[in-house]
Amino acid sequence: MGIALVRPQARSPLLRAFGRSSPLWHLDWVLLGAMVTLGCVGGLLTWSATVHRQDAAGGDPYSYLKRHMLNLVLGLVLCLALAFLGHRRLRGYAPVLYGASLLFLATVLTPLASTINGAHSWIVLGGGFSLQPSEFVKPALVVMLAALLAEDRETRRGSVPGGRQTLIALALLAVPALVIMASHELGTSLVLAAITAGLLFLSGVPARLLALLAGAAAAVVVAVLGLHLLSAYQINRFAAFADPHLDPSGVGYNTHQARIAIGSGGLLGQGLFHGFQTSGGFVPEQQTDFVFTVAGEELGFLGAGAVIALLGLVLWRSLAIARRAEDLFATLLAGGVVCWLTFQSFENIGMTLGIMPVAGIPLPFVSYGGSSMFAVCAAMGILQGVHADTRRPRSG
């Protein structure tokens, strides 16, 4: 008597997307909620920073708010797509992602690029939309460095990376950093350097080698300053940081006005849409790099503190994901994102308070800008993929 074999039916795409094994069931909803909340707060701050200017120009007072929220929605789609991909499959695409980001970055060296605020690093698409290719290098570099450093330790049975791997990592940093520096965009180069330094430390590079690298970095800084490789406005930014009272109507104007705006907020703020500095347009680029000044002036110490607390929640959940990651590659992925967001958040808020030099870095999730929003949402997608793969058992 034969035994009839029943061939299992293929799972439908709908079941794969929403079934119990789907990443949707394994997302870190606290992290996702903090990300969305920050994005919505950023929309309100952007709206407040631009509504008076749009009214005066006869434009749509909601235009920046609409575009910010559209960027957030598109970023969420990107986040979920990377979460569905997962870190295991993402690892195989590391060289492709890194190479594609370099090709896109190379467009800033062509006639396609435009200069905005002194940085020749924008691709203008029309209709008020533009892309900043350097932002997409950040997640690509995290993935590439994590793959490189994890593979080295795995193939060498746990030994720490040596000089060869460190030099390769520095080369992966140097290629995009030189292009970005050539386009006069110092801030992004600093973020890429922070990502690389953080991942080298997390991967176990010996302390003596890290000290040697720190010394070499200091020598490079001295050489850059000595050879006058920085543009005049970048040098002025560092001069204003060294002396906060230097020419408050000139090179120190941005920092001076930012500190006035934040200091005038008090405990509870002047109220959304009612900030004198904000409505008067005294702080330059207030919807982008200096958006934190809107929170400080209009929402006060408590409102600005809430923004910092939400950023802290994102970093705390990201660290938890890194700690529970199932393998070294996943740990380095999550750790690289933490280094990126920590440095970028500290630098952005610090420059508005005058404790860091002005470097043209957006505040994650809060600042207006599609490229920066897509980059940080991609980072969240990478983290969600690590989290989902850690909680979900391997198939087969």
Please describe what this structure looks like.
With 396 residues, the chain is mainly alpha-helical. Helices cover 67% and strands 4% of the residues. The protein has 14 helices and three strands. The protein has a three-stranded antiparallel sheet, with no helix packed on it. A hairpin with a 2-residue loop joins strand 2 (119-126) and strand 3 (129-131). The protein is globular, with a radius of gyration of 22 Å. The protein starts with 12 loop residues before the first helix and ends in a 5-residue tail after the last helix. Residues 4-10 have low confidence and may be disordered.
Provide tags for this entry:
mainly alpha, 3 strands, 67% helix
Q: Summary?
A:
The chain is mainly alpha-helical and 396 residues long. Helices cover 67% and strands 4% of the residues. A 3-stranded antiparallel β-sheet has the order 1-2-3, with no helix packed on it.
Secondary-structure blueprint:
Elements lengths: L12 H6 L10 H29 L5 H30 L1 H12 L7 E4 L2 E8 L2 E3 L1 H23 L7 H20 L3 H17 L4 H20 L5 H11 L10 H11 L12 H4 L12 H33 L3 H26 L16 H22 L5
Antiparallel strand pairs: 1-2, 2-3
Helix pairs in contact: 2-3, 2-12, 3-14, 4-5, 5-6, 5-7, 5-13, 5-14, 6-7, 7-13, 10-12, 12-13, 12-14, 13-14
Tally of DSSP helical segments = 14
How are the strands ordered across the major sheet? 1-2-3
User: Averaged pLDDT, please?
Assistant: 85
Number of separate strands: 3
For the report, how would you describe the main beta sheet? Answer: 3 strands, antiparallel
Overall spatial form: globular
Order of helices and strands: HHHHEEEHHHHHHHHHH
